[in-house]
Amino acid sequence: MAVKKAKAKKEEEVVVKEAPKKINPLARPIVRGENTIEDKLRALYQLQLIDSEVDQIRNVRGELPLEVSDLEDEIAGLQTRISNYSEEATALEEQVKMRKQAVKDANAQIKKYQSQQMAVKNNREYDSLNKEIEFQQLEIQLSEKRVKEHTAELAAKKQIIEAAEKTLEERNQDLKNKKSELDSIIAETEKEEKELLSESKKAETIIDERLLTAYKRIRNNVRNGLGVVSIARDACGGCFNKIPPQRQLDIRQRKKVIVCEHCGRILVDPAILD
Ligand SMILES: [Zn+2]
After folding, report:
1. CA of 38 to the centre of ligand 1 (A)
2. Fewest CB within 10 A of the end CB: N or C in the chain?
């Protein structure tokens, strides 16, 4: 059995994309009948189809909560980014304002020194004021250089903020859509899932313990969750290996539990639910 299990896993890699044929498991009521092998096989096949539908519901729902939480993370990241950049932009604006004020102050100083120069008594005083003026002129040059730099930086930051805000808006819309999709899927499938689970329980009571355990074990070991498959085009519906004609005949007789010799899945007659 261990060898077969390993083999089943390997074959799974190849066949996992093949969707099982859609059959309504509840088209025929789940009944105990005379408790023959056929009854058990039928209930087992119904159980498989029910469980597959539950799997499908959970698969669809399974990805959405993850997508929603991924989006929420991305949105939180964008918001942090925008708020950091906005703070930096505000600081830059403050800097520009200060530097512009510094230019004004320096110009006022220069004017003051120039008028003082009119009233000086000697060359020494005149030169000393000249030095002050030169110093203020350097201050102006430096401040103007910084204003230019900060303004460019500010424009770049604002561009980043704008882009991030646009992305944020899109992500918020995505989130809203995904959330409502998830809500409606949950609302839509909750009832169906409950019903299927109750039918699944009912089918389980018809199947004996050993068969049920084998079914669950196989189901857990294969990626598509198929422990019971029907014959399809003379092959196993799980691994697609050909089934010899005599074996197919045995399966159609419904007198024994027959497993696929390649993948270990339980094989049933495709017409067992007719
Ligand atoms: Zn097989």
Report:
1. 20
2. C
Q: How far is the CA of 143 from the centre of ligand 1 (A)?
A: 81
What is the token pair recorded at 67?
Answer: 């997508």
- 3-class secondary-structure state, position 156: helix
In order, the DSSP letters of 32-89 are -TT--HHHHHHHHHHHHHHHHHHHHHHHHHHHHHHHHHHHHHHHHHHHHHHHHHHHHH
Angle at 144 between CA 140 and CA 148, to 5 degrees: 175
Structure tokens at 149: 């730099």
* Encoded amino acid at 208, one letter: D
CA 120, 122, 123, 127 dihedral sign is negative
**Dist. CA 94–CA 109, nearest whole Å:** 22
For the full predicted model, state whether its pTM sits above 0.70. Answer: no
110-144 pLDDT tens trace: 999 999 999 999 999 999 999 999 999 999 999 99
